[in-house]
Amino acid sequence: MAFIPRIYIGSDRIENGTAFIDGSDANHIIRVLRKGVGDSLHICDMHGNSYNATITEITRDGLFALLGEPEHNDTEMPLRVSVYQCFPKGDKLDTVIQKAVELGAYEIVAVMSERCVARPDAKAFAKRIERLKKISESASAQCGRTIIPEIRGIISYNDAIKEIASKDISFICYEGDGTVPVRELLTERKDTVGFLIGPEGGLSEKETALAKENGIALAGLGKRILRTETASGYVLSAISVLLED
Question: Is residue 99 domain-shared with residue 207, that is, in the same domain?
Fold first, then answer.
């Protein structure tokens, strides 16, 4: 079977049953994949709809594709899960994003906490975030998702706590005492979930106290201490098993 590219575009690029694709996506389709008029594409409009499409015209600015009937793909979680990842060392954030997207996260937010060893400034992270967004897009296409999860950051720990506290289900993952098993926090499906994973050195007592002051639970992830790059996958899998149909 011939490879059919999965392309994500905004609904503003679709008009009268025709999609317009430009920029790097068009360049990749035409010059890398060597697709031409009459070839097929799979287009997602970022609102849960996908279309089998056929390239009808190639111009200097991009290409046009005629859309088939919309298909609503049931590949998204029935709730929006935000993963707050305290900034890890090396390229671990790449792995976190790739796996979190595959497992259904709605967004991944990079957080700077007290014990983060790697501490890039906003300017350095701005250069990196475009590559991280590409990782998110690639992972979305690979697993058949209809949206590209957003990548945000770097935000402060305090700001992360404020955001997490606003979610319907909120917790931070913690390996110390006073935790509740994560399964006990996932007994009822809600609209939004927000959880935070600490860095390699864990969270400080001050940080866990701030979470509790804001009504955020401390969640335990079983009998074994997980690496920072593993923990979000564990939680997302638990959410899928316990709250997805």
Answer: yes
Q: With CA atoms as reference, report the closest residue to 141 among 11, 239, 25, 20.
A: 25
Helical pair 122-142 and 92-102, crossing angle rounded to 10 deg: 40
Host domain of residue 224: 80-243
Same-domain pairing of 35 and 104: no
Q: Among residues 37, 54, 72, which one ends one of the domains?
A: 72
Distance of CA 218 to the CA centre of its chain: 23
Query: Cα–Cα distances in Å, from 123 out to 116, 117, 133, 202?
Result: 17, 17, 16, 25
| pTM metric for this prediction | 0.85
**Would the pLDDT of 1 be above 50?**
no
pLDDT exceeds cutoff 70 at 225: yes
DSSP 192: E
pLDDT at 172: 97
